[in-house]
Amino acid sequence: MNKFKQSQPPAERVIREAECRQLTGICRTTRYMMEKEGQFPARRKLGGRAVGWLLSEVSEWQQSRCKAA
Question: What is this structure's pTM?
Protein backbone atom coordinates (compact mmCIF):
# COMPACT_ATOMS: atom_id res chain seq x y z
CA MET A 1 0.00 0.00 0.00
CA ASN A 2 1.40 3.38 -0.99
CA LYS A 3 1.54 5.81 1.93
CA PHE A 4 2.26 8.82 -0.27
CA LYS A 5 -0.32 10.60 -2.33
CA GLN A 6 0.52 11.04 -5.95
CA SER A 7 1.19 14.67 -6.61
CA GLN A 8 -1.42 16.30 -8.77
CA PRO A 9 -0.92 19.46 -10.74
CA PRO A 10 -2.47 22.47 -9.04
CA ALA A 11 -6.06 23.08 -10.06
CA GLU A 12 -6.75 26.01 -12.35
CA ARG A 13 -8.11 28.94 -10.39
CA VAL A 14 -11.46 30.22 -11.62
CA ILE A 15 -12.35 33.85 -11.02
CA ARG A 16 -15.89 35.16 -10.91
CA GLU A 17 -17.41 38.37 -12.24
CA ALA A 18 -16.35 40.78 -9.47
CA GLU A 19 -12.72 39.65 -9.46
CA CYS A 20 -12.54 39.65 -13.26
CA ARG A 21 -13.87 43.22 -13.32
CA GLN A 22 -11.38 44.25 -10.63
CA LEU A 23 -8.42 42.67 -12.46
CA THR A 24 -9.27 43.97 -15.91
CA GLY A 25 -11.07 47.23 -15.19
CA ILE A 26 -13.55 46.30 -17.92
CA CYS A 27 -17.29 46.17 -17.23
CA ARG A 28 -19.31 43.02 -17.84
CA THR A 29 -21.06 44.21 -21.01
CA THR A 30 -17.83 45.28 -22.69
CA ARG A 31 -16.09 42.02 -21.73
CA TYR A 32 -18.98 39.98 -23.14
CA MET A 33 -18.84 41.91 -26.42
CA MET A 34 -15.05 41.45 -26.55
CA GLU A 35 -15.48 37.74 -25.82
CA LYS A 36 -18.00 37.42 -28.65
CA GLU A 37 -15.47 39.02 -31.02
CA GLY A 38 -12.67 36.74 -29.79
CA GLN A 39 -10.83 39.58 -28.06
CA PHE A 40 -11.25 38.28 -24.48
CA PRO A 41 -11.01 34.76 -22.97
CA ALA A 42 -14.18 32.71 -23.04
CA ARG A 43 -16.33 32.25 -19.96
CA ARG A 44 -16.60 28.80 -18.40
CA LYS A 45 -19.97 27.55 -17.24
CA LEU A 46 -19.74 26.52 -13.60
CA GLY A 47 -23.29 25.27 -13.20
CA GLY A 48 -26.71 26.83 -13.20
CA ARG A 49 -26.25 30.48 -14.12
CA ALA A 50 -22.74 30.73 -12.65
CA VAL A 51 -19.83 31.51 -14.95
CA GLY A 52 -16.16 32.22 -14.40
CA TRP A 53 -12.88 32.72 -16.21
CA LEU A 54 -9.61 30.86 -15.83
CA LEU A 55 -7.21 33.19 -14.07
CA SER A 56 -4.35 31.92 -16.24
CA GLU A 57 -6.21 32.91 -19.43
CA VAL A 58 -7.13 36.36 -18.11
CA SER A 59 -3.53 36.95 -16.97
CA GLU A 60 -2.23 35.84 -20.36
CA TRP A 61 -4.70 38.20 -22.06
CA GLN A 62 -3.51 41.09 -19.85
CA GLN A 63 0.13 40.38 -20.71
CA SER A 64 -0.62 40.28 -24.42
CA ARG A 65 -2.36 43.67 -24.15
CA CYS A 66 0.68 45.16 -22.37
CA LYS A 67 3.02 43.87 -25.09
CA ALA A 68 0.81 45.30 -27.83
CA ALA A 69 0.73 48.76 -26.23
Answer: 0.79
